[in-house]
Amino acid sequence: MKVVSRSRSRGEQKQEWSFRKEDVRDSGSALIDAYRNEAWKIFNNLEMPDRTNEAWRRTDIRGLAVNRFSLPAQGAFTHLEQPPQRLLESVTGESHGGQVLLYAGGAETRLDETVKAQGVIFCDLLTAEREYPDLLGKAMGKVIGAGEGKFAALSGSLAQMGVFLYVPKNVVVENPLHSLLWGPGIDLAYVSHIVVYLEEGASVTYVHEAASPTYETGQTLHSGLFEVHVGRGANLRLVELQSWGEHVWNFSHERVEVEADANLDWIFGAVGSRLTKNFSDLNLIGRGATGKMSGFFFTDHEQHLDHDTQQNHMAPHTTSDLLFKGALLGHSRSVWQGMIYVSPDATKTDGYQANRNLVLSPNARADSIPGLEIKTDDVRCTHGATVGQIDPEPVFYLMSRGISKRDAERLIVEGFFDPIMQRIPFEGVRQRFQTAIQDKMQSYGI
What we know:
By secondary structure, the protein is an alpha/beta fold. It folds into 2 domains: 15-254, no CATH class; 286-446, no CATH class. The protein is built from 8 helices and 20 strands. The protein has helices at residues 30-45, 113-116, 125-131, 133-139, 150-158, 392-400, 405-422, 427-443, and strands at residues 98-103, 106-111, 121-124, 161-167, 177-182, 189-198, 203-211, 220-230, 235-243, 248-258, 263-270, 275-284, 290-299, 304-313, 319-328, 333-342, 350-359, 365-369, 372-374, 380-388. The strands form 2 sheets. Strands 2-1-5-7-9-11-13-15-17-20 form a 10-stranded mixed β-sheet. Helix 1 packs parallel to helix 4 and helix 1 packs antiparallel against helix 5. The longest helix is centred in the C-terminal third of the chain and has 18 residues, at 405-422. It is globular, with a radius of gyration of 21 Å.
């Protein structure tokens, strides 16, 4: 389901991708293969997005070396860096009920027997193709269509890695599930597809992280789809952490559709990548559906992060609440474009969005573009956006109390992020964000 159109563009210059038709994997499932072959056709027919397209106007991707990337060979991870132990540990304060580790050309999966006995499926994409092709095929491509963009089609056709999470009706998964996409190496294309499907009355917490080392030269590509369906009366707490290396070009389409009386708590944080273009959509499709989106980012050096969020109210008595906060150092740039859409049938809608940006360097820049599109009466929708620097008055006040300027500025930045931290129910996630803040500020002498 797509509400606000994002037109396809004519590329400023034709670029030849290194991928070929034989890279489209044959799964043996008629449903899955038909979807992938159609996505491949769409990928080849669409031009690269450029700045004549409104959604891409503030993000220039002409520097992406599309002719250099290759998909990782089977077992490539054995010759590449391994993930640090801290990325494998739980950030939710509880042990994992299951874990999927996605590597270059390989995967590891673990699921507790008690969770498995409930009928829960939690595995990597290739395992799902072999063991659950009918269930996966019915869910894949239903929330996000391959025709929604060049990178959506790329991910749909060539995904070699991903996760399939299925929770049956009325099943409550007590311990959080965790997945990690670890992407070391240069000139590799990590193409992922994550599919999450919760039946009516189901409940689960799912944490997904994408990360890699940073290399001084070269590029790595990540292109991903993240499709989520939350059934009637179901409950999903979704945590996404992005700490790609600063040589990674990251493109993703993410959408969660929430049915009647269901609830979504979506937390996402980004501190990595050279360039990110992320579409994150919340579709409230059933009466009484609710969704909360809490976003965090911190950029430095030459990083460029562009997040495009939509809160689409398609049914009456739906509620959405978005708070997105970020800080910038160095020559970095952030873009946030937000839209609350209310359909003609969505009376009694309550929608809120806010984006706050703290610019900590004279060479950094933040663009913030909120929007409302309301097509019915009897709704309450508000939005706001701010871009500013550290106010010198509270710095002076703290210094007058014997606190150094450096510590005063650090306290102010921590206070700026406190509202977003209060929305995060997991101490481990808050600690991860706070560590990122401290590391980036220390590198700039703050």
